[in-house]
Amino acid sequence: MSAPTERITIKDVAAAAGVSKGAVSLAFNHKPGVSEATRERIFAVARQLGWAPNSSARSLSRQAVDTIGLAICRPAKLLGLEPFYMEFISGIESVLAERDCSLLLRLVGSLEEEIQLQERWWRQRQIGGSIVVDLREADPRIEPLRGLKLPAVTVGHPSLTGGFPSVWTDDATAVGEAVRYLAALGHRRIARVGGPTDLGHSAIRADAFQSTMRELGLDGGQHMETDFSGEEGARATRSLLLSAHRPTAVLYDNDIMAVAGLGVATEMGIAVPDELSLLAWDDSQLCRLTHPTLSAMSHDVHTFGAKVAQALFQVIAGDDIASRPAATPRLVPRGSTAPPRPER
């Protein structure tokens, strides 16, 4: 499906159907004044052009921005459990509240579904702009959204955004700090439980993990791919702890998987941190409620979300903004990391 370069309007539908804008309005509001044949012709043209009336019943000529869009390709169950997105959305909402605006949030099952959703939102004037998350290498959403001329801000490293302005964290530097910290404690067998490798930020973290391990002269480093869920985090941890070369430290890509990993270690009778150190990404309240408490790479996700929303309003206003880094995640040592027990 090719993306239109301009937003289709009621005027375009009227011209293509050979009627007035008033007739289009009467047809879609199911009011008298147009014949049934004309109504059907208007509907057919509208479908062909991909146009529908604004579902929120705003004036079609109104240019004020009162809603922004956010589509997330994650299972609803996982999203409800993951503290990162809850904090991120709360940061966005803090900016929207100041502007008396709303967030139109939708969970989608695929990137193709998201592309169609973004196109529909924009054509129907439901949103004034959109936030694009979870970027991939050669992300298939970039070209269609550029074709729409949709005001958008991406969340991800500039190398992934195809020229869209972005707000991003330096994950490579943060991963390097995490590995060096564990190595400084004396760990030589360090594993990583990461997210899907098709996600750009997961790939960046994986590359940084391997390159830092090589730089420090450590074993290649075991890497397990997951879907970010606690179940997958537990499965990956169990596999690592049953391996012939059991790691003495594990770095997780989110807090949910780290908590699950701690549970598996307890189940298997492996003492944390005496026999196994665990380090989580995206510090949250979860990390402070476990026993022992979880060391984490922490950053202010609420402020991160606010910065993304602020950048989007600049783009909507027509400002030509550059991609901007947010604060790099910082190490917060807690009770789950310590020097490894000497091997007998």
UniProtKB/TrEMBL annotation:
Organism whose genome encodes this protein = Streptomyces fumanus
Recorded GO MF terms: DNA-binding transcription factor activity; transcription cis-regulatory region binding
The record's section on SMART domains has: HTH_LACI (SM00354)
Q: Which UniProt keywords apply?
A: DNA-binding, Transcription, Transcription regulation
Q: What is the top-level taxon of the source organism?
A: Bacteria
Write the protein's name. LacI family transcriptional regulator
The answer to whether UniProt assigns keyword Zinc-finger to this entry is no
Enumerate the Pfam families for this protein.
Answer: LacI, Peripla_BP_3
Entry keyword Nucleus: no
InterPro entries per record: HTH_LacI, LacI/GalR-like_sensor, Lambda_DNA-bd_dom_sf, Peripla_BP_I
Q: Which residues form the HTH lacI-type domain?
A: 8-62
